[in-house]
């Protein structure tokens, strides 16, 4: 699929079919994450692939009941990815912790590759880290940056609105509108 089509079509998927994710597809997605850019090429990310229903339930219990992705993590998706990162394996500048960016970029590459393979994902950041840590026995040295369900979407979710170009892009200096 053409890259821009993937970018346009990707959605946060919260309803999944029961069909399993083929191993070779899963490895392709993880490869997309593995080759992502990072601070000093330190590659602080680690991924845990969860298929065990009990662990998925524990991960879902780390999410508030009104998190719209809770059922996707606990029941609907055949797999859940746990995105971990070691802050000491990245850098910081002016109080900006780049491990979050490193891990986020790797996950986004994975998510775009997933869409190309017909699979759905959803960023989940609204969860209690301690509970998720216990569920997957993640060492204290690593932060859990996000979770994502992974599987075949039940349907393509509708498009969420985005800000206009004028709201987010300036020319030369802050606030100057850009002319195309
Ligand atoms: C950092 C981050 C955290 C998010 N956390 C959650 C979450 O906890 N639960 C959820 O259902 N969606 C979560 N989302 C998904 C957003 O709600 C979604 O990306 C946004 O509404 C735009 O929709 P789209 O991804 O379908 O384009 C998160 C997205 C990002 C980038």
**Integer average pLDDT:** 97
| CATH C-level | Alpha Beta
Spatial shape: globular
CATH architecture: 3-Layer(aba) Sandwich
Helices and strands, in N-to-C order?
A: HHEHHEEEHEHEH
Number of helices: 7
Helix amount: 25-40%
Description:
- It is built from 7 helices and 6 strands.
- Helix 2 (23-34) packs antiparallel against helix 5 (98-116) and helix 3 (53-61) packs antiparallel against helix 6.
- The chain starts with a helix and ends in a 12-residue tail after the last helix.
- A 4-stranded antiparallel beta sheet has the order 1-2-6-5, with helices on both faces.
- A hairpin with a 2-residue loop joins strand 3 (92-93) and strand 4.
- It is 37% helix and 16% strand.
- The radius of gyration is 17 Å and the shape is globular.
- It has helices at 3-9, 23-34, 53-61, 70-76, 98-116, 129-136, 165-168; strands at residues 45-50, 79-85, 92-93, 96-97, 120-121, 143-151.
- The model has no long low-confidence stretch (mean pLDDT 97).
- The chain has a single domain, classed as NADH Oxidase (3-Layer(aba) Sandwich).
- With 180 residues, the chain is an alpha+beta fold.
- Bound molecules: flavin mononucleotide.
- Flavin mononucleotide (FMN) binds next to loops.
- The site of flavin mononucleotide has 12 residues, from loops.
In short:
The chain is α+β, with helices and mostly antiparallel strands and 180 residues long. The chain is 37% helix and 16% strand. A hairpin with a 2-residue loop joins strand 3 (92-93) and strand 4.
Strands, helices and their partners?
Blueprint (H helix, E strand, L loop, with lengths): L2 H7 L13 H12 L10 E6 L2 H9 L8 H7 L2 E7 L6 E2 L2 E2 H19 L3 E2 L7 H8 L6 E9 L13 H4 L12
Antiparallel strand pairs: 1-2, 2-6, 3-4, 5-6
Helix pairs in contact: 2-5, 3-4, 3-6
The structure holds flavin mononucleotide (FMN).
């Amino acid at each position: 699929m053409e890259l821009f089509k993937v970018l346009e079509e990707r959605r946060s998927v919260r309803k999944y079919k029961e069909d399993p994710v083929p191993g070779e597809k899963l490895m392709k997605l993880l490869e997309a994450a593995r080759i992502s850019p990072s601070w000093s090429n330190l590659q602080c990310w680690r991924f845990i692939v969860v298929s065990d229903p009990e662990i998925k339930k524990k991960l879902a219990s780390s999410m508030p009941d009104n998190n719209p992705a809770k059922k996707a993590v606990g029941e609907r998706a055949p797999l859940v990815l746990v995105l971990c990162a070691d802050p000491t394996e990245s850098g910081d500048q002016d109080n900006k912790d780049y491990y979050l960016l490193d891990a986020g970029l790797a996950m986004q590459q994975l998510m775009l590759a997933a869409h190309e393979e017909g699979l759905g994902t959803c960023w989940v950041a609204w969860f209690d880290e301690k509970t998720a840590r216990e569920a997957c026995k993640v060492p204290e040295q690593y932060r859990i940056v996000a979770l994502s369900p992974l599987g075949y979407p039940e349907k393509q979710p509708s498009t969420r609105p985005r800000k206009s170009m004028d709201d987010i892009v300036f020319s030369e200096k802050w606030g100057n509108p850009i002319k195309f």
